[in-house]
Amino acid sequence: AGPDFNEHVLHKTILVGDSGVGKTSLLVQFDQGKFIPGSFSATVGIGFTVSTGQHCRLCTWIWDTAGQERFRSVTHAYYRDAQALLLLYDITNKASFDNIRAWLTEIHEYAQRDVVIMLLGNKADMSSERVIRSEDGETLAREYGVPFLETSAKTGMNVELAFLAIAKELKYRA
Ligand code: GDP
Ligand code: MG
């Protein structure tokens, strides 16, 4: 069964990961169905819902960082009231993958204990520049017991699926 479009419980989903991995682009792709290069900082300090009319398309508010992750200064308040979290790295950037462990440490420290986490290897369209194999993402995800997908904010690959998987998981927990 698909998500319940009449579900009215609102959740907060946050995007986490190194600067440049594609968090803002992923959100823009999901929300607008297109890739807008350079759309960084478009969502400074705001979260928005993707509900349409009186029916909720996906009953979560999705928050993006305003770029604070560049200085590793994502505020603890950002995590505190989140029920779900999309954790991204860039498959063409090894440092962003290596930093996932540090992000998870921070998440486990500041987020709610039962926060829904999904690991995403983004920029999957850039196959010629890939440095992180899919298996490496899968192995890391398995180690932490979180689901994993490779996505592309550019082509839209798995973007809808990632957000819907989160929504589905939230629904089961509701
Ligand atoms: P953020 O700092 O995590 O929010 O990352 P941005 O969304 O600002 O993206 C950083 C850069 O990567 C921008 O130049 C984007 O256009 C580009 N980008 C983001 N996602 C993808 C993707 O899936 N594929 C490709 N080829 N480029 C991407
Ligand atoms: Mg951004």
From TrEMBL:
UniProt key word Transport: yes
Protein name as it appears in the record: small monomeric GTPase
Keywords tagged on the record: GTP-binding, Hydrolase, Lipoprotein, Magnesium, Metal-binding, Nucleotide-binding, Prenylation, Protein transport, Transport
Source organism: Cebus imitator
Family assignment from sequence similarity: Belongs to the small GTPase superfamily. Rab family.
GO BP: protein transport
GO molecular function: G protein activity; GTP binding; metal ion binding
EC top class, as a word: hydrolase
EC number(s) per entry: 3.6.5.2
Reaction equations catalysed: GTP + H2O = GDP + phosphate + H(+)
Cofactor(s) listed in the protein's UniProt record: Mg(2+)
